[in-house]
Amino acid sequence: MAITLVNPDGLPTIDVYRQVSVATGSRLVFVAGQVAWDADGKTVGEGDLAAQVEQCYLNVGTALAEVGGSFRDVAKLNVHVAGWTPDQMPALLDGIARAVARLGMPVAPPATLLGVAALDVPEHLVEVEATAVLD
Q1: Distances in Å between the alpha carbon of 103 and those of 36, 47, 71, 99, 106?
Q2: What is the rounded distance in angstroms from the CA atom of residue 71 to the CA atom of residue 92?
Q3: Percent of the chain whose pLDDT exceeds 90
Q4: With contact defined as beta carbons under 8 Å apart, do 3 and 64 qualify?
Q5: What is the CATH number of domain 3-134?
Q6: Does the pLDDT value for residue 1 go beyond 80?
Q7: CA–CA separation, 14 and 118 (whole Å)
Q8: Rounded to an integer, what distance in angstroms lies between the CA atom of residue 104 and that of residue 95?
């Protein structure tokens, strides 16, 4: 595997993700922002942030599988949440925990959380983009 996830001493430990990833592979893969659509383009978990986060992460995994990778190859995520407020953090973390469990991972890679005014359609609460490194 081309990615090693690390929680450095001196930084907070977050249960569901790591603060740093170290990439040693040779192919960069950039996955466009994924929203909570199923394969038919229908929104999964309308009004449910945790369900939408889970679906976004699963969609990233599906995109990577198409090019010979997996979610374990993700070096960095950007998570965009429409109308973000700090009280949404438990739902966000729940969705991440559910996704990494379904993807067979112990934790998620580093991520940047960005609150945004809106996404592509009103029913989408979150969008997740990924950078992965493959051997």
Answers
A1: 16, 23, 7, 6, 9
A2: 18
A3: 94
A4: no
A5: 3.30.1330.40
A6: no
A7: 27
A8: 14
Whole-angstrom Cα distance, residue 78 to residue 65?
19
Q: Please choose, from the candidates 2, 17, 31, 21, the residue with its C-alpha nearest in 3D space to the C-alpha of residue 99.
A: 17
| Residue where the block lists tokens 């934790």 | 107
List the domain boundaries for the chain: 3-134
Distance CA 10, CA 78 (A): 23
Q: Using one digit for the tens of pLDDT, what is the confidence trace for 61-82? A: 999 999 999 999 999 999 999 9
**What's the full length of the chain, in residues?**
135
> Tell me: the pLDDT tens digits for 40-66?
999 999 999 999 999 999 999 999 999
Model confidence at 14: pLDDT above 90: no
Distance of alpha carbon 100 from alpha carbon 76, whole angstroms: 14
